[in-house]
Target: Transmembrane protein 88
Amino acid sequence: MAEQEIEDFEADSVSDTAYMLNHVHPPPYSIDDQPWPLEARSMCEFWGWAFLVTVFNFVLFLLNFVLMATVFCIVLLPTIVVVYFGFQCHSRVIHSDAYYCKTILDDNSSSALIILGFVLMSPLIVIAMVTYCSVARRLRLFLCFVPYTRAVYKGMKWTGHDHPSGCCCCGKEWDSNLKAWV
Model:
């Protein structure tokens, strides 16, 4: 009797495995909202949706890059100005004929400005990274990227999370208790 039970168990486990191999599904993003099984798109639809997903993700990447460049330029502006004046007035680099280079800054003070600018750069880069990450997190920009499974299967939502407005930066209340240290 024990051998019969073992054979039945092995037959059941093989059939479950075969069922799982024959019915491949994408990972569940939200089990409550996804109809099972999802229907695969035709090849023409797939390429069209893949192109749209690629364009959307690329535009979102450019938006993130512009935001990051803006934040870094604003935060690093003091360092940029100090290093610029240091290099502009030093006699071995540019040696400008500007009034402030002739009257106020000599080679020693220009060298001091260059050194001060590069010393200030490290903490300001950290401040710029923290500022960019907090702004991007507040706007939830990283949640807006669309996975390519949306191009493969029909019936999946466009965004990865529930929003009444459908916008990535709007929707659920901001969790003020959630903190992250950078």
Q: What stands out?
A: Residues 59-156 form one domain. The longest helix spans residues 43-75.
